[in-house]
Each structure stands twice: as structure tokens, then as C-alpha cells.
Amino acid sequence: MPKSISIISSVLLFFYFFLSSFQLTASEFQKSNPSFLGKFAQKIQQKPYQYETKYYTQTLDHFSFLDLPTFQQRYLISTDHWSGPKELGPVFLYCGNEGDIEWFASNTGFVWEIAPRFGAMVVFPEHRYYGKSMPFGSREKAYKDSASLAYLTAEQALADFAVLVTDLKRNLSAEACPVVLFGGSYGGMLAAWMRLKYPHIAIGALASSAPILQFENIVPPETFYDIVSNDFKRESVSCFDYIKNSWEAIEAEGKKADGLSHLTRTFHLCQKLNSTDDLSNWLSSAYSYLAMVDYPYPSEFLMPLPANPIKEVCKKIDDHPHEAGVLERIFSGVSIYYNYTGTVDCFDLGDDPHGMSGWDWQACTEMVMPMSSSKHNSMFPAYDYNYSSFQDQCYKDYAVKPRNRWITTEFGGHDLKTTLKAFGSNIIFSNGLLDPWSGGSVLQNVSETVIALITKLGAHHIDLRAATNEDPDWLLEQRTSEINVIKEWINIYYQEKMTVLSM
């Protein structure tokens, strides 16, 4: 055996035995180190996550050979705990979502907290067309029209991640280091899809709150809003009823002579309402987001919020005097979401604090997720999904026609159990059942290596958030399960490398 291969084999053998000795069940993990994640969280709160901000010269169109301009893709990287290429230290890559990558990095403490245990490098690449990763040099030029937005697709984003991480590994002489993917929500979808599309680049993916089934004719279109509604109903039936009745009250008020002005004053809006639809959409968004981030502790992911925010919203709605009007109750409740700190004087309905407006384009092209609201189970106004109307609106907004079957053609979704069982491996689909997006995710094990981890009281990718002293036992157990599965992926990778090298 050549000397260089012998050295690598020895390193691999050491790493394998080191990791093999690190087998912990959920209960053993808590017993041996019950406050590990909590202590790490306290340390992080005192000192922000440390990383370098770098830029990679990225190809605009990976699927043609046209002479197109490149763009600068931002990525965050930390090698503070990386054990290096000689020990085949893993690379933890978070698949960037539809927003500023620093926002997601600061809300994905799980990846930062477990990196030291694995000797892992941490990389957070930013999704093209979001944050500072703008093609054509600026947001204005990138978002100018359908021609400039044409390169904003999931396929191009995945290719960005693949090219960036392979080049990064090559430059660090780390070609043999395994890559593990992480992602939450749309980022979780990208993590799962990247594992399926680029299995030679990443050995596994943790896809948290990833609704890869929220597409045409896979899950019932009313699923999302039914879950949001159930989240409110479980806290208070009267709260559910007040919200359900509020839509007609808003509509009736809006039809009065000075109704829109009155609604503008009642809800403390910065600009006068043009229609009741604008107000209804603003309220609907708040209720949906509240269901997503109904965490058991205070958080600031979307907005500064108290622990169990739906409970607090319903308290506000229910605790008014009996003679209080429904609109007064609704404003009091929704202020928990939009103004918990009490520092907002008026509300701008068009505010986009996290730069997520690019999603409107994605939803009008390939990310077509049918949704409707049922008459009896939903607290939202009842409506059926109308693809023709949706198509017309997208053409009006962007001069494009949606491709509602493209995502399932590109990534699959129909008959998922059969296809993933045959062609997929090493994916964790984690979901909390309070999260309305869980209805469009994978909630049952597909195979021994494509597994579902479910928590009854979990909200939107809560497992990826930083550990806190308030974390319930079920969350500690879920994270411990994820750590053990990821460790097993890496162990198997090292074993296979050993086998190849010994041959």
C-alpha cells in the first residue's frame, strides 16, 4: 500500500472508532449532558455566531453555454471547529432560503451548536436574488422584468450550492470530506432535493418543515389553512369564532361611506386602505405566521413574539368586555404579532423586512402551491383554489404563465414512497404538527434511511433553532435523534472510504 494511502487509512480508522464510541440514545444524551445545548445557547447569546463573509463568482445560467454575466454570491463560512481535510472533517452546508442569509444563519443555532462535536466546517450560501446575491449588479436590475428574473429558480439555486461547495472543497484540498445538508422550510425543500439531485456531492440532508408535497394533486389544497385554524381552535374556540366572523364584519364596514377610512384608523394603518382585501390579506398573513412560529419560548424569527404567541393572541381577543366589537378584538389580538414591543406607531401593509418578495416570482413560475379554505374547518373566508385566476394574476404581475407541474416533474412528489424507497436515501424529514407546512411534508418513514421525525407540539423548523433553557424534553429528544442519524451517515461514509482504500 502506498504511504499516502496508508496515512489516510490510519486517520479514517481513528475517526471511525472515535465516532463509533459516541453512540447515545436520547435519554442517555440528556442524562450524560442534559444542559449541553442550553449552555451553548447561553454562550451564543453572549457572543454572536462567528463567521467570515465571502463572495463566490457564480455562473448565471448553469444549464446553457451562453456568454452571460456572472454574479457575486455571498456565503458565510466558519472553519473554527473544522478538523481539516486530513481527518476528513465534514462540511455542514445550510441551503439558503428566500431571504437574507445572515437572517437564516442567526436563526439556525442547531447547526452552529453541533459543529464542534463533529469537527465540522459550517457554510451558509445565500440563495440567488436574495440578500446581497443579486445578478446584474443590483436588486433593481435583477428584479426589473421577467427577462432579468428568469434565472431565479430552485434548479439554478441548487446548482449554485453544488458548484460553490465542490470548488470550496477543491481549494481546501478537502475533496474527500463529506457534506451534510441542512435546511428549513423552502431551504429544507432545497436540502432534500439537493440530496436527490446531487447524491455524489452530499451524503445526507436534514430537511426541516419542508413541504415538498404541497404541489398539484398531492395533498388536499385546504390542508394549510385547516392546520392554522386548528392551532387557534385548540387554544380557544371563542377566539376561533371571533376570527371566523371578523371577515364579514370587515367587509360590511368597508362598504360604508367612510368605511375604509374607519378601518384604516381602527387598525392604525400608515396609508388609507384601498380595499378590504388588503386588510384581510394582512390579517391572514399574521395568523399564518403565528401558527408557524408558535414556539414555547419567546422568539424574534419573524417578529418579536412572546412564548406561545397564539395563546397570547387569543387572550387578547377573548378578554375584552362582552360589549366590545369584533374589530376591536381583532386589532388587539393581531397587535401581538405586529407590535408586541409596542414601538410601532402605524402599520405599513407592504412592508418586507426580510427581503422575501422574490418568492412572488417563484410562486408564479415553478413553486405553484395550490391552497384553498374550507367552509367548516377553516377560520378563514371559504374559497376554492382557482388555477385560471391564479394564472391570470401571474401574467398580469410578471407577464409569465406558471408551470404547475414542473416541480413534480423535476423533483418528484407523486407516489413518493415508491420512488424515494427505490431511489432516495439519507434524508430526515422533521416536522412539528403545529406548523401548517407540515401538512405538505413527509410524515411517515419511507425507508430505513428516508425517515420522518414528528413532534406533536413542534412549530416551524423549531429543531433547527438555537437551544434554550426552556426547550421541552420532546425537542431535546428530537435533536438527539437527528444528531445520532447524522453521525451514522458520517460513520458509514468513513467505513466505505476505508473499504475502498483497503482494496
From TrEMBL:
Keywords: Glycoprotein, Hydrolase, Protease, Signal
Matches recorded under SUPFAM superfamilies: alpha/beta-Hydrolases
Segment forming the signal sequence: 1-27
Pfam families, per the entry: Peptidase_S28 (PF05577)
Gene Ontology terms describing biological process: proteolysis
Glycoprotein found in the keyword field: yes
Single GO MF annotation: dipeptidyl-peptidase activity
Highest rank taxon of the organism: Eukaryota
Similarity annotation: Belongs to the peptidase S28 family.
Entry-linked PANTHER family: LYSOSOMAL PRO-X CARBOXYPEPTIDASE, PROTEASE S28 PRO-X CARBOXYPEPTIDASE-RELATED
Protein name (record): Lysosomal Pro-X carboxypeptidase
Species whose genome carries this gene: Papaver atlanticum
